[in-house]
Amino acid sequence: MTDQATRGWQRPSIYDVAKQAGVSHMTVSRVLNGHPNIRDSTRERVLRAIEDMNYTRSSIARALATRRAMRIGVLVDGPVEYGPNSTLRALESAARHQGYGVSAFSVSDGAQSQMDDGLMELATEGVEALCVIAPRASSLRVLREHDRGLPTIVIKAEPDPVWHTIAVDQRAGAVEAVTYLIGIGHRRILHLAGPQDWYDARERQQGWADALALAGLDVIAPVVGDWTSDFGYEYGRTHDFGDATAVFAANDQMALGLMHGLAERGLRIPQDISVIGVDDLPDSRHFLPPLTTVQQDFSALGELALRQILAAIGGDGDVHHDVIEPVLVVRASTAPPRR
After folding, report:
1. Partners of 71 in beta bridges
2. CA 61 to chain CA mean position, Å
3. Residue 105: phi, psi to the nearest 5?
4. Domains in the chain: how many in total?
5. What predicted TM-score, i.e. pTM, was given to this entire model?
6. Where is the HTH lacI-type domain (predicted)?
7. Which residue range forms the structural domain that includes residue 33?
8. Which of 9, 98, 303, 322 is deepest in the core (most CB within 10 A)?
């Protein structure tokens, strides 16, 4: 029976890793911190021991050693929606890999009082920097009024004159989706838009309009929804689509509801009308039919956000806008229109 089994499970320490790898604990520390003067064979041995023992560097230990909080504050507006929630989880994962903890405060409906409380709570926890996942314009208005002087990175779809911003390029994703529909023969493409206080919704709508204008096609008045599948369902079940042969929905949930509503009316997808969404929800591939959609790489977004947060902590105060390019995933919900 191993020592660990007799004493019960304990988190392995740097000394356990050193013993396993046959090196000193200082060597393990140098490997963890990327020290260049380490033999490749030694580095590989230490990394193998780290993996075998499932060792994770303690952010508490690092905080005690460096006299730093090693925590990032994250203020999340609209946490129940897929985009903000996925962004938070990706940022938490990236932070853990760098030995940082994350303190998150969620805000519903952009309420000013909640924003105030969140900023105060995160500041009193002594976080080193602030990341604001701000899908709505209303949330940023509050942030501008209550600057806490912390290095701040904002995740939103549009550039900002005050803060360094990071986002998935929503406009580019919409352009790619609509250009694909045009390329397979569609000439009348309706847009089921998201709430206009949301930056992502505005950027996706603009990308839809840009793609149509570039192709010399008419822009049908968009239909503004609320992100929910219920809204898509009611619209698909009750409204006349005229001569539109395709719908670009601003998210997969509205696309799902739309497909349900259309099916109840006896309309076939994609034979009678094509549908395309945004997000690539984990279940989108299992819709009937599987949904063509714009995929966002939230893992890459979280890693990019963390790099810029650490740069801001290090004193980089430059204001610019970094983007992650989305990818169109073509499935069975789109096809050329019937002649």
Report:
1. 101
2. 29
3. -130, 125
4. 3
5. 0.78
6. 12-66
7. 3-56
8. 303
